[in-house]
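in:
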């Protein structure tokens, strides 16, 4: 017998400000559900745990004294969860006020539904194709490693539609807790990366269907928890080696080719470049609060114009989104509708004195305190 409808599990490491933004969005999204939030902190060197205790007293905090990795930390959180459903959620995400209501209703519609994942966009509104993927067989993975993601991503399902997909991304996975427990949760052989592929595949092998829900949009800044360096590449391709040995190992020759391919990719793949960010042409504040307007203008040493629903945002501008005045849903919608226009965004969480955002999914974000 479960005591809650939903448990949201957030594993966090050293992203204090993004975590605050995430938690405030989650709190706004569970007002209609009997839900709990569990944060598992993997020994962050910043003041994440202090912030949680001060600002979010209802959040259940597991304060690890060492970095246990993504898989083990999530299993820790699920082990104490009371929800009939669980949501594995990254700390560098922003959900809308209706995200969990819609997913809860959808997940109850069919007993064969395994995990469900929403449409993910980055901080500029760009769709993140990794939120719906195919099984990375050796052929598919080799094509991805050497530049082609045509078969790696599940392009058969439109990015704004709902459909079955083999693999979801660990940044957001919604499912029955009983299914998570039935398949054994995350395999702790994975420290970080690959565990979402493993869990997705294990769920389908158990007879369930994973679904991509493209009618629900969540922001995933993505670059905040991960530096795309040599250490990252070794962990990522090491995780893929674990996956192949566990699920796809067929013969010596194929295993040898996979080993060589992963080794080559680890050594040869160059660090992903982060686009240069030009100084914005104009600054706008989506709010009616003149005190915040003046504080931001003073901090950035530039005029910040108040933005209304009818205002036109010029290309190359930066927009500050005041969550004291507008819903997460409205702000996410604005970001979605402004993609490919050279407009960047920063969120101002409720009752906070900072603005935060990320203009590139491969790089670190920016925090402006005012």
């Amino acid at each position: 017998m479960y005591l809650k409808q939903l448990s949201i599990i957030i594993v966090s490491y050293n992203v204090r400000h993004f975590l605050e933004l995430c938690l405030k969005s989650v709190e706004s999204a569970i007002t209609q559900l009997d839900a709990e939030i569990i944060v598992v902190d993997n020994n962050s060197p910043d003041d994440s745990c202090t912030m949680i205790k001060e600002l979010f007293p209802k959040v259940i905090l597991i304060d690890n004294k060492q970095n246990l990795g993504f898989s083990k930390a999530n299993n820790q959180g699920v082990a104490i969860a009371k929800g009939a459903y669980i949501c594995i959620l990254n700390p560098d995400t922003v959900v809308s006020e209706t995200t969990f209501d819609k997913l809860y209703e959808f997940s109850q519609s069919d007993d064969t539904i395994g995990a469900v994942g929403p449409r993910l966009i980055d901080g500029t509104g760009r769709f993140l194709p990794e939120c719906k993927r195919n099984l990375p067989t050796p052929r598919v993975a080799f094509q991805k490693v050497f530049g082609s993601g045509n078969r790696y991503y599940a392009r058969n399902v439109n990015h704004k539609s709902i459909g079955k997909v083999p693999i979801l991304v660990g940044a957001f996975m919604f499912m029955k807790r009983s299914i998570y427990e039935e398949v054994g949760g995350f395999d702790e052989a994975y420290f970080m990366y690959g565990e979402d592929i493993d869990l997705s595949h294990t769920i389908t092998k158990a007879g369930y269907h994973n679904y991509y829900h493209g009618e629900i949009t969540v922001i995933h800044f993505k670059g905040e928890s991960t530096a795309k360096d040599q250490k990252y590449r070794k962990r990522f391709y090491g995780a893929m080696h674990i996956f192949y040995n566990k699920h796809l190992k067929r013969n010596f020759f194929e295993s040898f080719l996979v080993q060589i391919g992963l080794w080559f990719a680890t050594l040869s793949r160059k660090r992903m470049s982060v686009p240069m960010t030009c100084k914005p042409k104009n600054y706008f504040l989506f709010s009616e609060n003149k005190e915040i307007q003046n504080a931001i203008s003073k901090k950035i040493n530039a005029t910040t114009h108040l933005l209304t629903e009818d205002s036109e945002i010029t290309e190359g501008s930066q927009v500050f989104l005041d969550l004291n005045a507008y819903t997460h849903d409205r702000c996410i919608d604005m970001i979605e509708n402004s993609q490919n226009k050279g407009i960047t965004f920063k969120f101002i969480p409720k009752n906070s004195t900072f603005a935060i955002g990320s203009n590139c999914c491969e790089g670190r974000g920016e925090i402006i305190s005012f």
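note: The radius of gyration is 21 Å.
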